[in-house]
Amino acid sequence: MNRITPEALYRLLPAVHRLRDADEGQPLRALTAILAREGAVVEENIEQLLDNLFIETCEDWAAPYVGGTIGYRPLYRIEGTDVGNRAEVANTIGYRRRKGTAAVLEQLARDVTGWPAHVVEYFQLTATCQHMNHIRADHHLGPDLHDPLAMEPLNKAFDGTSRTVDARSIQQSPSRQSIGGKHNLPNIGLHLWRLIPMAHTQVPATQVDARRFLFDPLGAPRQLVNWPEPETTIASISEPRHLPGHISRRALEADMTAFTPRAFTIFVGGTALSADALEACDLSDDGPGWNHAPHPAPAPGDPPQRVRVDPALGRISFPEDQGETVATSFHTAFPARIGGGEYNRAASFRQRPEQMLALYPSPDHATLQDAVNAISTIGGIVEITENGVFEETVTISAGDGAEVVLRAADGIRPILRLDGILHIQGAADARVTLDGLVLERRRINIRENPDGISLKEVTFRHCTLVPGRAFSQTGEPANPNAIALTVSTTGLELFLDRSISGPIRMHETTNAEIRDSIVDAASADSGDSPAARALFGTGPETEPAGALTIIASTVIGRIYARAFPLVSDSILLARTDDGSAPVRAVRRQQGCIRFTWLPQDSVTPRRYRCQPQLAIDHAIAIQEQLGAVSPATRGLITSRITRWLRPSFTALTASHPAYCQLRDAAPFEIREGASDDGEMGVWHLIAAPQREANLRIRLEEYLRFGLEAGIFHET
User: What is the pTM of this model?
Assistant: First the structure.
């Protein structure tokens, strides 16, 4: 359809009217321009109505209506995630044609949950007597112990070892306290990979010495993961190359070309090393050095040494000293897209027409500080356009009423390795935003400007303020309990959105909102509930932080605040050794805490359906139905529930891929205790329980009669 332009519409008028219009100052031309603009809106709407007839091009709201024409029943909508019903509607006819097959169940799990999946028919792995007329030569009762590669996926999705019959049901109980069996004739297993592969493209490798390097530019050990190959049809079962699984040493040794350059690449002097120049190896610690490091000079007649790679630890060992720069491209795993990375953040970008945009690195700005100074007075955006490590000291000083944004370009993950404290200051009504950055080594200080004036607002969006300021070579915090952010000015509005931060000190007048984020005290103690402080005041121990609003976040460490206007769907994990309250508010009459886990001895405003208090009240109510409950009995019930109803995490180290992820064995009251029956804490945004609930609903429609299906988490 031809677009209606103002000029084309104006030329449809008779020439006599156009001549008269020119004499009058062209008011008719201005009117036709308005009509053309509204006509273009109508034309676009007509075109969209045509697009809405097809599932590939329709708007999101129209997908269930398109599905209704083929009898599609919509599932529960999951807000805030990229899981929709478009792919499922598009494949519904194909599903029905192959209904009950393993390939359909696998694709169905992938479309409904948004997670990569693999289906296992456990009757094929159950030890049975074979009929002599139908012998399966690959169906062995015992594993081949001579093949360590085949033994590696033991008890995982691609475990090909046969087992004797397990008569327990494969369906897990709702509380997940008892896990069912797997190997039986009617059992189907749906294995899901919940961690997302995160790309790191041509980033500087961390140098240990002239021959040893780490993939991670932050210097932490990283488990490399596979970058999945897409499947071209729904009629096949996935293989390891189609899934974002961990790359093991034996798998890399068996087929180096299957992983490089697709999953990882090593660059020396800008040139990528080929698969023939690499070999897999165990480079774990051996005293001050690494195991199996190549010798610098092979014996005469021996083949040249190859570069050795350890995918489990993210380590590289060269046979010779490297005089050129070493860079890497690789993939790691993480539960969700927060904290910055090479994922799509364009939807959060805002730029007004009058805002100045300064790119860095560029010939116009020798340093990042020069780029920031160019827009500080009037406001604007500094956009970092390269992956890399930028070592310098930066001070952001916003002018009166100016909005200063320092951000990474979409699809870029720059690291600011601060040589000194990053100071943020500004004049009246000034705003500062940091977006998509990783900051390490030094803290950030938000302070008054030299005139004693405080800026209005500071926002950290998709940022990582490395807990502990840096990582050691073991992945632990290099500086436990070190402050990541200090707010020494008054009356500031502080926002953390989808970010990760170490401990925060703030003035009592600060109003902070923490949403979909992690604040980690990075404590030195090994307990699962640290006694270190995570959110507290700028003065001595007796001075509180400001008013804290915490939404769907995880705070690891003690909190002392002036008030809690709202805390919802969160986990506040802390303890004290001196008998004081691990989570404490000065003003208990203000605010509310709802659908949150927090220590039982916390001093807070009123709580609504918080754990473990909710479970304690429920247990006491049941006991009261049998008769009066004495104070001693109440104390026993409280002590018993408090001991077991507490968060249980896969890892509490920021360098771990499953950082702050709740274990499957964590209490059901926490995993599905949020306001929307999702899990409490930062990964509430993933909506994992809702995804699995939708999958179970679909299995009732597509699972063959007589079969049972169980859902298992690979990551």
Answer: 0.87
